[in-house]
């Protein structure tokens, strides 16, 4: 075939890659290799004595560190300076050290909006192809292929797009369209990829390699949560083509379908598809979906697809009990009593102190929870030692750990033992993919972006936006998810730009050429301390009064005054918003001060809300409460604004938005603190 080179390149990028390499992988968090003994015991492999709710009040904890209002050190971005340490829970309260004097720097003066300074934020990679934007279509085509191999997907899309329509009269237009779609999927620009694949199938139906287009369209549809359409695309691939790759794709994506009704629809539409049948049987037997009404369906699937009955027989559902056992796996690190390490790990102590108060509240309501605390240290070795303890298998719920590498290990353990585990601080949705027993207590970064897009559509009259996001994985995910969600709701993102606020030229280029007076609203997804003052400076220089949507961490930025924020229409994505006038917040603060003689940090509030909410789920529905959680709507939290895991979501779907002290979402009166 005369265009075999283009086909081989695409095959190298997609079909010849091992299945696990087709999907973006997360780097592990750095951890420190130092084990510590289990809380409250001298031996490293013994749990601390259980702490019934009616037990003696715990000793005072050291002074709570000031917690930022938005993202916090223990969430998606813990400190990357080695091992974190914990403050002891016994003895007298430690006096906090005075804060180091900080330098106050005035906000940088932004360049004029029309300045077109373009300096790359990243270190230079391989040299760019010559003649970018050439009028010669063959040169542009070769440039596009080269840019894909260099992982410069945005530039590749720019080079290839003009070659794709029939009006371009380029003899390799189908290959250019396919390679454009490859670049778009690699850049996670699913909407752009889908649009180009539709053009390819419509305008070039005779292209010999159309099977590859169907295969790529299936991946895009899976990523857009359109599993039914993905299976339709795979079914259109001729027999004998890409069979192994098709099965690998199904094996990766079908377990990610979170809604039971949606999966039942897939089973009805594809009753002979073994991959669909196996995946649904696995959801029933091992994913927490099984009910007594599912027995005939599961038996039929086991017989039809010759499944191993021992593997696909669900374990007996745990019966509801009068009291439940909860394991808390946190890096307390009490083996190092130095003040510096205690202070660095203060958030862990605060988190646990909040759980103890929740335990007391549940006990008063007649819903006792027994807490068993384990010190997992800051490395995976000690976590594995804890998971080897026989009593862990008898727990009804596991909370922890903090770090990503440990979370992956615990997630596998929880799935094998069929014990629900809750990550208390992470916002990484990748941690809970394909696992019906693993939940995030926080809303993921992608969920925050989707909720922000819905808020913008309902709140702002204009339907146009500019989105800037920091050059990090989390913020890139936020920016892409916001664009996808906002445009799906009828809005239009005029510009989606990545910036590196550490580089003056990069943040300048991010705003270059933007006339913000003509834009509906601006989104800045950045925690960086320079991003706030620079953005406000640009708005002032342009005289732009558009609404600004950003992170709540800006409220803790000493370089941005509350007056600057209040003078503009600024809204904050604020998952940890605490309404200080609410009864629950005031009551918790009162109880915490009585117990600890110190004001609670946001981590203390988090520990309370987490255990109170999931402890209540245990008493209402028993240890396997996934289906009940999925079918219930969001509820008012005891101290935070709300909690909800609808339709099988495994991260909290409720995200408050605030404008300084004015709450933009109404909630019911909180309950639970008595």
Under CATH, the topology of the largest domain can be stated as: Serine Threonine Protein Phosphatase 5, Tetratricopeptide repeat
Low-confidence stretches: 1-123, 663-674
**Total individual domains:** 3
- Mind telling me the C-alpha Rg? 27 Å
Q: Looking at this structure, what is the CATH superfamily of the largest domain?
A: Tetratricopeptide repeat domain
What gap, in angstroms, lies between the N and C termini? 76 Å
Q: How many individual β-strands?
A: 12
**Shape descriptor:** globular
DSSP helix fraction? 25-40%
Mean pLDDT: 81
Q: What's the tally of helices?
A: 23
Would you state the CATH class of the largest domain?
Answer: Mainly Alpha
Describe this protein's structure.
- With 674 residues, this protein is an alpha/beta fold.
- It has three domains: 137-311, Tetratricopeptide repeat domain (Serine Threonine Protein Phosphatase 5, Tetratricopeptide repeat); 323-443 and 580-629, Response regulator (Rossmann fold), CATH 3.40.50.2300; 445-573, Response regulator (Rossmann fold, 3-Layer(aba) Sandwich).
- Helix content is 40%, strand content 8%.
- Strands 7-6-8-9-10-11-12 form a seven-stranded mixed beta sheet, with helices on both faces. Strands 2-1-3-4-5 form a five-stranded parallel beta sheet.
- α17 (473-488) links the parallel β6 and β7.
- α2 (137-149) runs parallel beside α4 (173-186) and α13 (346-364) packs parallel to α22 (602-621).
- The protein is globular.
- The relative contact order is 0.13.
- Mean pLDDT is 81; it is low at 1-123 and 663-674.
- InterPro entries: BCAA_transport, Leu-bd, Peripla_BP_I, TPR-like_helical_dom_sf.
- This is Leucine-binding protein domain-containing protein.
- Belongs to the leucine-binding protein family.
């Amino acid at each position: 075939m005369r265009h075999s080179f283009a086909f081989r390149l695409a095959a190298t990028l997609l079909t010849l890659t091992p299945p696990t390499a087709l999907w973006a992988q997360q780097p592990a968090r750095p951890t420190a290799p130092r084990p510590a003994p289990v809380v409250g015991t001298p031996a490293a492999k013994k749990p601390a004595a259980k702490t019934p709710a009616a037990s003696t009040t715990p000793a005072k904890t050291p002074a709570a560190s000031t917690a930022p209002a938005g993202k916090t050190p223990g969430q998606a971005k813990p400190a990357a300076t080695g091992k974190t340490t914990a403050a002891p829970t016994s003895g007298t309260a430690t006096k906090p050290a005075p804060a180091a004097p900080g330098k106050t720097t005035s906000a940088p003066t932004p360049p004029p909006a029309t300045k077109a300074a373009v300096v790359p934020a990243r270190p230079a990679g391989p040299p760019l192809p010559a003649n970018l934007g050439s009028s010669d279509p063959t040169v542009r085509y070769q440039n596009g292929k080269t840019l894909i191999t260099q992982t410069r997907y945005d530039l590749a899309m720019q080079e290839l797009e003009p070659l794709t329509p029939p009006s371009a009269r380029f003899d390799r237009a189908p290959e250019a369209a396919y390679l454009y779609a490859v670049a778009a999927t690699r850049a996670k620009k699913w909407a752009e990829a889908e649009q180009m694949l539709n053009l390819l199938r419509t305008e070039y139906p005779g292209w010999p390699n159309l099977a590859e287009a169907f295969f790529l369209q299936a991946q895009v549809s899976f990523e857009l949560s359109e599993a039914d359409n993905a299976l339709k695309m795979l079914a259109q691939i001729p027999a004998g083509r890409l069979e192994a790759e098709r099965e690998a794709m199904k094996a990766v994506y079908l377990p990610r379908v979170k809604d039971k009704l949606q999966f039942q629809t897939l089973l009805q539409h594809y009753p002979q598809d073994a991959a669909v049948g196996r995946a649904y049987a696995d959801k029933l037997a091992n994913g927490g979906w099984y009910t007594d009404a599912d027995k005939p369906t599961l038996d039929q699937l086991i017989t039809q697809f010759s499944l191993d009955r021992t593997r696909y027989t669900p374990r007996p559902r745990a019966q509801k009990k009068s009291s439940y056992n909860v394991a808390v796996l946190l890096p307390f690190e009490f083996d190092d009593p130095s003040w510096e390490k205690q202070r660095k790990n203060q958030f862990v102590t605060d988190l646990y102190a909040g759980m103890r108060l929740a335990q007391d509240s549940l006990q008063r309501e007649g819903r006792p929870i027994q807490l068993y605390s384990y010190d997992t240290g800051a490395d995976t070795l000690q976590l594995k030692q804890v998971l080897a303890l026989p009593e862990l298998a008898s727990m009804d719920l596991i909370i922890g750990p903090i770090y990503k590498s440990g979370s992956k290990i615990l997630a596998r353990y929880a799935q094998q033992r069929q014990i629900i585990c809750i990550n208390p601080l992470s916002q990484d949705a990748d941690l809970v993919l394909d696992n019906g027993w693993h939940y995030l207590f926080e809303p993921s970064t992608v969920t925050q972006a989707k909720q922000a897009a819905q808020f913008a559509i309902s709140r702002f009259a204009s339907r146009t936006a500019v989105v800037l996001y920091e050059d990090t994985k989390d913020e890139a995910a936020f920016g892409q998810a916001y664009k996808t969600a906002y445009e799906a709701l009828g809005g239009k993102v005029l510009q989606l730009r990545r910036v590196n606020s550490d580089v003056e030229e990069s943040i300048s280029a991010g705003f270059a050429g933007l006339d913000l007076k003509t834009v509906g609203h601006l989104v800045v997804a950045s925690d960086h301390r320079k991003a706030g003052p620079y953005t406000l400076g640009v708005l002032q220089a342009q005289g732009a009064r558009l609404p600004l949507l950003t992170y709540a961490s800006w409220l803790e930025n000493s370089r941005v005054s509350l007056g600057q924020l209040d003078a503009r229409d600024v809204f904050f994505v604020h998952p940890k918003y605490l309404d200080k006038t609410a009864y629950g917040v005031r009551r918790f603060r009162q109880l915490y001060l009585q117990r600890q003689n110190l004001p609670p940090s946001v981590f203390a509030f988090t520990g309370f809300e987490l255990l109170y909410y999931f402890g209540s789920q245990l008493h209402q529905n028993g240890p396997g409460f996934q289906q009940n959680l999925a079918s219930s709507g969001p509820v008012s939290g005891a101290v935070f604004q709300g909690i909800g895991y609808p339709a099988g979501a495994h991260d909290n779907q409720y995200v408050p938005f605030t404008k300084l002290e004015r709450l933009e979402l109404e909630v019911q009166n909180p309950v639970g603190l008595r």
